[in-house]
């Protein structure tokens, strides 16, 4: 408890972020907006309410496009929200955020705690653009303190569109289901040629080795993927290599005219 100047407890109260709306205490609603959208059970009221939801969905796209349109080259960094601040992966997230800024990239994360916070912190402390694209979840309370430009989404699909549209590459730190979801979505978009010139780097060879063995083993052996699909990503422990890959992809995408190159 932290008493205020009038004797009141001023301990920060956790809340729930629903898009731009913050609720606390008795105003917190159960479930999430995505959950209500996707739940097909119950009364037929959805016939009348779903068309109106389109307007809210539209507003999320408009807000996201407006906020990020002039972002410039950016890299998305994904990783576990459960990474503690004293874990080596947190320090790795800070380093990759800082190094990407030094290479003239903005850094985009999911805006949450753990590895996402680490990358935002590294980017912000390096003086770069630190972006967080949050999502309404029942167990998270908003964007981390190192996000300098943040948008909180109600709908996963609107948020995912922003990652793919405004990031020129993905760096994937060790993580769980959410991280795997983002990784495999990116791989699918590259495989189906929905995005081009899109490097994907997994950082942490020990952590990702089991996944790679599975992909190179039964998944490939049974013809579920092609051998060339394994070329869509790289795995390394070397932060320098990660930055070099992203810089090379940027140069391939936006080659500098000879007249503008430094002597």
TrEMBL record:
Coiled coil: none
Keyword Hydrolase included in the entry's annotation: yes
EC numbers, comma separated: 3.2.2.n1
Signal sequence range: none
InterPro entries: LOG, LOG_fam, LOG_family_nucleotidases
Family affiliation: Belongs to the LOG family.
Protein name: Cytokinin riboside 5'-monophosphate phosphoribohydrolase
Organism: uncultured Nocardioides sp
């Amino acid at each position: 408890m932290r008493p205020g100047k009038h004797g009141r407890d001023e301990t920060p109260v956790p809340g729930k972020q629903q898009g731009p709306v913050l609720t606390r205490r008795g105003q917190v609603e159960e479930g999430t907006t995505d959950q209500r959208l996707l739940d097909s059970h119950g009364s037929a009221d959805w016939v009348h309410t779903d068309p109106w939801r389109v307007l809210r969905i539209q507003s999320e796209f408009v807000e996201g496009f407006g906020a990020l349109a002039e972002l410039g080259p950016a890299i998305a960094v994904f990783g576990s929200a459960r990474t503690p601040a004293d874990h080596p992966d947190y320090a790795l997230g800070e380093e990759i955020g800082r190094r990407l800024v030094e290479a003239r990239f903005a850094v985009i994360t999911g805006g949450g705690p753990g590895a996402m916070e680490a990358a935002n912190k590294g980017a912000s402390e390096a003086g770069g653009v630190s972006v967080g694209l949050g999502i309404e979840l029942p167990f998270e309370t908003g964007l981390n303190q190192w996000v300098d430009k943040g948008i909180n989404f109600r709908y996963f699909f609107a948020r995912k569109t922003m990652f793919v549209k405004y990031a020129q590459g993905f760096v994937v730190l060790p993580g769980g289901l959410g991280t795997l979801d983002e990784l495999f979505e990116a791989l699918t978009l590259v495989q189906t040629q929905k995005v081009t010139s899109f490097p994907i780097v997994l950082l942490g060879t020990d952590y990702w080795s089991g996944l790679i063995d599975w992909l190179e083993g039964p998944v490939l052996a049974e013809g579920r993927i092609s051998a060339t699909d394994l070329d869509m990503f790289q795995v390394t422990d070397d932060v320098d290599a990660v930055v070099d890959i992203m810089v090379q992809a940027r140069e391939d995408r936006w080659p500098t005219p000879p007249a503008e190159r430094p002597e």
